[in-house]
Write a structure and sequence with these properties.
single chain; 64 residues; mainly alpha; 2 helices; 88% helix; 0% strand; elongated
């Protein structure tokens, strides 16, 4: 059974991937680079959030 807590970080990461693909293939040029940078920040936020949830659940399960 999959853990439901990882749904929101996965959704944030997928939003970043979608924005990156849109910025590369549809917008292009300088505006596309700006959206690409924002998408990388969003993807990083999703990964960090998922890592925090994983760490919290690991510590809670192992030590508490």
């Amino acid at each position: 059974m999959r853990d439901k807590r990882y749904f929101v970080p996965y959704l944030i990461f997928q939003l970043g991937i979608t924005l990156l693909v849109i910025s590369i293939f549809f917008i292009g040029r300088w505006a596309g680079m700006a959206y690409g940078f924002v998408s990388l920040v969003i993807m990083g936020l999703g990964i960090i959030t998922g890592l925090l949830i994983f760490t919290y659940s690991f510590v809670r399960r192992k030590y508490l």
